[in-house]
Amino acid sequence: MSGLYFDELKLGQTFNHAIRRTITEADNVFFSALTHNPAYLHLDEQYCKDHTEFGQRIVNSAFTLGLMVGITIGETTLGTAVANLGWDEVRFPKPMFHGDTLRVETEVVELRESKSRPNAGVVTFIHRGFNQRNELVASCRRSGLQLKKPTEKA
Questions:
Q1: Are 32 and 65 spatial neighbours (Cβ–Cβ below 8 Å)?
Q2: Could you give the number of structural domains in the chain?
Q3: What is the sign, positive or negative, of the torsion defined by CA atoms of 87, 68, 55, 36?
Q4: Pairing relation of β-strands 136-147 and 120-130?
Q5: Which of 8, 26, 101, 154 could form a disulfide with 4 if both were Cys (CB 3.0 to 4.6 A apart)?
Q6: For the segment 23-51, what is each residue's pLDDT rounded down to a tens digit?
Q7: Which of 90, 86, 73 is nearest to 124 (CA)?
Q8: What dihedral angle (degrees, nearest 10) is formed by the CA atoms of 31, 24, 71, 88?
Q9: Residue 1 lies in a domain
Q10: Is residue 15 within 8 Å of residue 4, measured between CB atoms?
Q11: Alpha-carbon gap, residue 31 to 90, rounded angstroms
């Protein structure tokens, strides 16, 4: 499914995204290595067993955020986004672990016309990520510049 144009979005509209993703050890280790994040919490199993309340490695929160937003793209902004304008209010109330499955819900919370681009508007989404136990593990408020539906020429 392709994304929606600005004028196809409705305030309060919600999406329960069909794509789900089980996070693997490889996902977490590769992402942490690619982003030069050597935190023991992501890479050192023994350290986590001996020194953390979790008793195991936790998934890199930047990976969780990126995956959560990525899951939403197909139904919201694929092919219709001009630019991502920012992420605010990013929260991780519970950690993700290797083997956890992420599912995502999105809500449209703000729509406004662009002042500088007549062919686009600014949309604000709230994305919420849940694990397989239906626990909220991540959320963020994301704003983007979204194209309006092209007018048909006669």
A1: no
A2: 1
A3: negative
A4: antiparallel
A5: 8
A6: 999 999 999 999 999 999 999 999 999 99
A7: 86
A8: -50
A9: no
A10: no
A11: 19
Domain that holds residue 116: 6-147
pLDDT digits (tens, 9 = 90+) for 75-107: 999 999 999 999 999 999 999 999 999 999 999
CATH of the domain at 86: 3.10.129.10
Q: What does the H/E/C string look like for 61-101?
A: HHHHHHHHHHHHHHHHCCCCEEEEEEEEEEECCCCCCCCCE
**Alpha helix locations (H) across the chain?**
25-34, 40-43, 45-51, 61-76
Q: Give the number of residues written for the chain.
A: 154
Q: Which amino acid is at 18?
A: A
Question: Is 77 part of any domain?
Answer: yes
Task: Report residue 151's pLDDT band, with 50, 70 and 90 as the boundaries.
Answer: confident
**Mean of the per-residue pLDDT values of the chain:** 95
Is residue 153 a part of any domain in this protein?
Answer: no
